[in-house]
Amino acid sequence: MVKEIVSSAEENMKKSVDVVRKEFASLRAGRATPALLDKIVVSYYGTPTPLNQMANISVPEARMLVIQPWDKSATPEIERAILKSDVGITPSSDGTVIRLTIPQLTQERRTELVKVIKKKAEEGRVAIRNIRRDINDNLKAKQKDGVPEDDVKRAQDDLQKTTDKYIKEIDELVKLKEQEIMQV
């Protein structure tokens, strides 16, 4: 019973790390990646539709994305959605495909992105610590309900090791993303 509580905490911590990983993927690091467009939603015949569900997104060059809409009539709406988004890239279209050329990052923008990464990583760490706190409270309540103190202590130790493991994983993600951004 106590082990199940700790394993559910581990599942939630994994999800927190995955959220941080997805947030990092959507940040522009000077290199083209289809993940940059994951958050873009296009008004397609009045229905908000994710861009990746209505077009093929490819990376022909290191700093270029090509979007091929399956429905050519949606091209102007896709352009509008990209312009409204926080991607910060102006699309160029020839009527059938949309090209996004990713500009070289300035040093100022790189340091700004590193700050954003560290902020998002801290949010992930806080989420993991909140999970730990909630589970610790749950374990203390179980102890009051008659679960042996040794089992609770062992579970708390396991929980702390799990917390440390996932916080370390976030720290490694930060280090990798920071290197990727600062690479000229």
From TrEMBL:
Superkingdom to which the source organism belongs: Bacteria
Subcellular localization(s) per the UniProt record: Cytoplasm
Gene Ontology biological process terms from the UniProt entry: translational termination
Any Gene Ontology CC annotation: cytoplasm
Record GO terms (molecular function): ribosomal large subunit binding
Domain Ribosome recycling factor: 21-182
Record keywords: Cytoplasm, Protein biosynthesis
Chief place where the protein resides: cytoplasm
Family to which the UniProt record says this protein belongs: Belongs to the RRF family.
Its biological purpose: Responsible for the release of ribosomes from messenger RNA at the termination of protein biosynthesis. May increase the efficiency of translation by recycling ribosomes from one round of translation to another.
Listed PANTHER family: MITOCHONDRIAL RIBOSOME RECYCLING FACTOR PSEUDO 1, RIBOSOME RECYCLING FACTOR
UniProt protein name: Ribosome-recycling factor
Origin species: Desulforamulus aeronauticus DSM 10349
